[in-house]
Amino acid sequence: MMPGETRRVVTHVVSGxxxxxxxxxxxxxxxxxxxxxxxxxxxxxxxTGILHDKLRELDIPxxxxxxxxxxxxxxxxxxxxxxxxxxTGIVHTHGFKENVLGILGKELxxxxxxxxxxxxxxxxxxxxxxxxxxxxxKLDIALGRLRQQAIIAVSTQLEExxxxxxxxxxxxxxxxxxxENTRREWKIPTETDSKMPRxxxxxxxxxxxxxxxxxxxxxxxxxxxxxxxxxxxxxxxLEPELRQLAVDLDIADRIIFKGFVSPAATExxxxxxxxxxxDHEGLPMTLLEALALEIPIxxxxxxxxxxxxxxxxxxWLVTDHSHEGYxxxxxxxxxxxxxxxxxxxxxxxxxxxxxxVEANTVKYTDVYNT
Length: 370
Description:
Strand order of the largest sheet: 3-2-1-4-5-6-7
Largest sheet: 7 strands, parallel
Helix content: 40-55%
Radius of gyration: 21 Å
Structural class: alpha/beta
Order of helices and strands: EHEHEHEHEHEHEHEHEHEHEHEHEHHH
Distance between the termini: 15 Å
Strand content: 15-25%
Shape: globular
């Protein structure tokens, strides 16, 4: 910055009810921006939780607009008050509800500019059978077109989709991690000759993650004579149903439910393979961490996943979205030998080149400055 110039204040608006992909990326971004001499990040969160606490540990100004106690108008007013207090120049929103309330708060505080990041595709379809969700989606699109100046897509697939909704406003900036710090903090797994490899999945236990396919895949592999253990890292409303599925498939003794683990890398480093069976994904942070830690990956060929895996150079992509398809890919992985090492080496190089913290932080500051 030039002498006498002040850092631009960017206020992020995020739910913070979970410690999932969007929350992890907001934390990574705020930490990276705080280290620059151009941007001072501040944050409004709608819930207490891991994100709220970790941001406070960084001494980043955080306002809790508690959605369990406040209605939408009160939350918008809290956002406006935060922006006035901190002299916010840009409001940056993360999510449907956050977009709508963030823009209302921005207007109340007369903040001139607003930006949004779209972290993934909607997890549920918006139809007239669900009028509330349908109305929020339409309002979200209208406000993005009329009252936001930039839309950030975290993958090429999202960029192409969003360009149709917000022509001329879309910028592609990948989710990112601090690769070298991740490798310093966590032990890199070593290849073993174990006759019972540990295959893991990381994510909320909700329908879109298709943990049911994961369990059926483990059952099929064991039935085919490939002894293996499944590790489910995450919690959610489907856990009782998924536990029962493991019992019904006579695989319960080979499936470990670890529950929510933060950070997930503490368990990921114990895996021989990471499996991702989601119906769709934006650009999963878990995959970036797995690449940095050189963990072999088998994942659904959907959304931003092929981009993360270098279209198959850095992992095994599955187009047959069934337990048979994933079992076939895993069997191939177990028999490839040197090909497995080649993919993990390529993955480490790939995550360093495209998904590192420095280059992508510069892209964010460029968007803010323009």
